[in-house]
Every structure is written in C-alpha cells, then in structure tokens.
Amino acid sequence: MRARQDRRADHARNEVLPVLIHGDAAFAGQGVVMETFNLSQTRGYTTGGTIHVIVNNQIGFTTSDPLDSRSSLYCTDVAKMVQAPIFHVNGDDPEAVVLVTKIALDFRMEFNKDVVIDMICYRKHGHSEADEPMATQPIMYQHVRNHPGVRKLHTDRLIAEGVVTQEQADAIATEYIDSLESNLGVAGTHAEHPNPKFLIDYSRFVGTQWNDPIDTTISEAAVAKLSEAITTIPDNFKLNPAVDKVIASRKKMGAGEMLMDWGFAENMAYASLINDGYPIRISGQDSGRGTFFHRHAVIHNMEDGSTHLPLQHIKEGQPTFLVINSTLSEEAVLAYEYGYSSAEPNALVMWEAQFGDFANGAQVVFDQFISSCESKWGRFCGLTVFLPHSYDGQGPEHSSARLERFLQLCAEKNMQVCFPSTPAQMFHMLRRQQLRPYRKPLIVMSPKSLLRRKLSASPIDDLVNGHFHPVIDEIDDLDKSAVTRLLVCSGKVYFDLLEQRRESELNNIAIIRIEQLYPFPREEVRELINSYSNLKEVVWVQEEPKNQGSWYYMQSRGTMIGCLKDQHTFGYAGRFYSASPATGHMPLHLDQQKQLVSDALQLDKLEVTSHKQVKPVLLR
C-alpha cells in the first residue's frame, strides 16, 4: 500500500486504504504483528492508518485451549501499544458489523491511525472441513452445532421487521448460490476504469535472463557532475571531523586523485540511478550513516542537529531518494520492503541487515516469500538485500550471513546471490540490478572490514569503462602455463590469499574470485579454468567452517565440479566443521585465518579428492 501511495504522490495517505485480515490466535501470538504496529506511525513506514479486521472464530483452538493462547482477556490487546481504537462486534449481527466498519473508516480518515475491528464469530467445521472439532472442544461445538447461522438469524429479524418476506429472502439466497455455482462475480467493484498512469506493466520482465547484456557505465561528464553533487554540503553546515574527512576524500576520488572506496562507489551508484530517473528506497537499523561508518547518506550538522541528504539534491525534479533508520526489527521491516518492491519494480528497494547474522530474525520472509515469490506467489520482486558478511574476529553473531542457507534456497533462477569484492563491482552490480528488464531478488554478501582495505579499491575509470564481472581472473601477471594450482574463492579471503601469495612468491598458484554464486557463471568459470593449460589442482577456499559457506554448493555438477576436467583434483581449504558460525576469541580467530591461508597455499596440508569421487562429507 505504501508503494501505491508513493506512486500517486499521496503524501496525505488518503487515496489508498490498507486493510489487513487476521486470525484471532495469530494476532495475539505472532510477534510480527507487534513489530508491524510499531512501524505504523514511523516516517518511513506509515500508510496513514491501517484497518485491521480480525475474524475471531476461535480457530486457534487446534493449537491450544483459549486459556493457553494468550495472557490477556482479548486477542486484540497487542494493539493497545499504539493506542489504536478496538471495536468488538458480534459477527451474528451484520448491521452492527457494517456500523462498526463505518466508524472505523471515519476514525482512520480523520486521524490517519490504525484501527481494529474484532469480529466475534465461530467456524462451523473447526480448523478445516475435514476436521473433527468435537474431539477437543466438545462443549463449544455442541453450541456451534445447535446455533442458527448468520443468514438464518438476520433473515428472521428482517422478516419480523417487515423488511422482506420469506419468499423474497429465499429468492435472494437462491440467486446468490446460482451465481457462485455459475462462476459469476457476486461482488461489485468501484474501479471499473482504473487510471492507467498508476498501473505497472510487468510484461517487460517476462522471459529475460540474468546475463542479458546491459550497459552499466556512466560518462566522464556524469562522474564529474554526480561526484560533485554527493560531496556538496550547504554553507554554514558544521561537520563532524571524521565525516569532514570522508567528504574531503570523496572529492579527491571524484577527481581521480584517489582510488574509490566502497562508500563513494555505492553513493555514486545511487546518484547515477536517480539521475536516470529511478527512485531509491533503503532501510535498515543504521542505514543513513552505515553500520560501518561508510555510507554517510545522511549528513548531520554538529551545531543544531539538522540533516542534509546529498542524494536528494542530484537534479531538479528528481525521483525520490529515501533512506530509513528502521526500528529494531528484521522480520516486519524485511517483509515490508519485500511488499514494497513487488508493488514498485521501477524503484531500487533495499534492505540492509546491521550484521548479516541478524537476517536470522527474518528467515521466515526469505523462506516463504523472497525465495519463492514467482513460483509460489506469481509475483516479480527486485528487492536487494545487503547482508554484511566476513570473518573479522567479532564472534559468532557478527561474522556469518549464513551464505549456505541462501544457496540452498536457490533453484529455477529464482534469485541472485552475489559476493562483490571491489567498489567498482558494487557500483555495476547495483546499476545492473535496476537497469536490466529483469526482476529477481538480489542477496548481497556485503563487506565489513573490506570497506577500508587498501587492496580493495577501484580507479574512477572503472565507472566509465567497466561492468559487473560474475567471475574475476588472476590479476597479477603470472605465466598461465606455469600455474599448477588454482585457488577459487569469494569475498574478503581473496585479499588474504593474494597478500600471502605475493609475499611467498608462489608463481605457480593463481587465484580467481567468484563474484556471482547464483546463477552460477558456469561458462565463464570453465573458460578461465581451461586457460591454465597445465593446471592439476583446483582448491575452493573459504573463511566459513566446512559445513557452512559455499563448499557443499561448489560440489554440485552445476557449479565448480561441472567446470573441471578429468586431470583436475578438487580440494578444500578453510575452517573445520563447527556448530557455531565463528569463534568469539580473537587470538583463535587469527590462528584459524592464518592456518586456512597456509592450507590453501601448501598442498601437503590440503585435503584433496578427485572431482569424480567427491561425495558429501559426514560430520565427525
């Protein structure tokens, strides 16, 4: 609904009405209901008030007795947290339900706040038509079976009041049932001629492929214009010294005097998309500044606390740029952004976890909606999800975005999983996501310590002449015919391997990076492997424990195994199996990191198997 309001520039939020229908047990029992109420009056999420209709038919009894289903008298008590008015109404009285609905609508339109209608009723057949509710609720269902239906009660009342006769009531019922059995519409619509300018044409997304060519470059003139726009601060705007240093560095990056860092490249991607006419919406628990002090999309005045958003000043009449520091919620916020993205494919919509691990709190949204939005729900969705992921010794809740889970969800080209290793890759990946006529969810293993690593920087020319590389070949000038061992990896560990390889002068070892894990760039990877004519060993290197990360995924025929020849062996270098994503002890982390790099570069310590014989490895 928020997306439809924004499309209409409905800032009063009175042209589109959100209606949510709930079950009584779920309304009281599911935490996402509380999270969503908490969003209702926040600036980035308000819809001007939602009508909540609870079909309170005691259906939750199959889970537990009503005495066990909640601690309060009413299932609606959670709505008191936002002081929403709650109307309890008897579902056996249709006229009372209509009256309450009118009052609720009047309240919503007057005060633009949520309102709840709790319709007390029952379900004749229990949980489903095949259910036998008498087995667990004998007293309640004796009353239900002896209770006249709503139509009988209301018909008798209308006949007693002389409004209709029995014959007229029977004719109305017969006509209604005949219409249903004839597959005719029984409910009218007020939107007989919807305004076409508010509709979205989804046909252009049908039948497109992830690797359809698209130009994501920008001109040198655009680089100069956009870099100036994102580094222009209003006069008399006093910056924090650390932020002032960031802005000064970005000016140099835009002029080509410094290599680009991640924050600059990301802001340039947003600026260029805004310049091309695309709205942008970013949300997360620290998205304005960026959890790792890198984005600075919102600049704060140290003297009066006022703010300035450079990305809202790219050009006259530009589309919307909105960055939201969200509530401390994962499930409700991610679900909200999923809904927004599915209803507004012309906008780049992003959700960023404060740490990738925190996406655990929203796993149900990934499982039930994002991974299956097309095959299950028939909806296109281009939501981009940033999950900061890398092993920096910060412990088991600040290391892993659970990459393995997302790779397990991948099938039928349902989404994209990318692991960019340079700022230029991030720039072109974001522009590719929006410029292509291709709308699939994009899961990004995004950087943390890599944000400021000197090796992970890009020249400004990459914005003008580059593109997104699904796989990146060895960057040093090695003699390919002398390479006998090939290390394949993704993310931050690449730079650890590169530094150690250079220090050890191991010119027989090459390193390539997989930047797009799904859909797997099989042809590109096979071509790179074949370019090493004397290659014997291929080694997958990862920071994650062996039972996590990409190792098992890389053993499928559709990924690395399918790219190898008979003379190649396929091995693993990384942490051992672990029940925890990472250690919480920095010295142990450093030892593990040093050991896995050593294992990757020293064959005698490497577990090696023929790729013809690779089988799932049992946990010890």
Structure explained in plain terms:
This protein has 620 residues and is an alpha/beta fold. The chain has three domains: 2-147, Rossmann fold (3-Layer(aba) Sandwich), CATH 3.40.50; 220-459, Rossmann fold (3-Layer(aba) Sandwich), CATH 3.40.50.12470; 473-613, Rossmann fold (3-Layer(aba) Sandwich). 32% of the residues lie in helices and 15% in strands. The chain is built from 19 helices and 19 strands. Mean pLDDT is 93; it is low at 608-620.
pLDDT under 50 segments (min length 5)? 608-620
Q: What top-tier CATH class of the largest domain fits best? A: Alpha Beta
Largest sheet data = 7 strands, mixed
Beta-strand content bin: 5-15%
Structural class: alpha/beta
Apparent shape: globular
What is the count of structural domains?
Answer: 3
Distance separating the two termini: 51 Å
Helix-strand layout with pairing:
Elements: H1 2-7, E1 19-23, H2 24-29, H3 31-39, E2 51-56, H4 66-69, E3 86-90, H5 94-111, E4 115-120, H6 138-146, H7 150-160, H8 166-181, H9 220-230, H10 241-254, H11 262-275, E5 280-284, E6 299-300, E7 307-308, E8 321-325, H12 331-343, E9 348-352, H13 363-370, E10 384-388, H14 403-409, E11 416-418, H15 423-435, E12 442-446, H16 461-465, E13 471-472, E14 485-489, H17 493-504, E15 509-514, E16 516-518, H18 522-530, E17 537-545, E18 569-575, H19 586-601, E19 607-610
Parallel strand pairs: 1-2, 2-4, 3-4, 5-8, 5-9, 9-10, 10-12, 11-12, 14-15, 14-17, 17-18
Antiparallel strand pairs: 6-7, 11-16, 13-15, 18-19
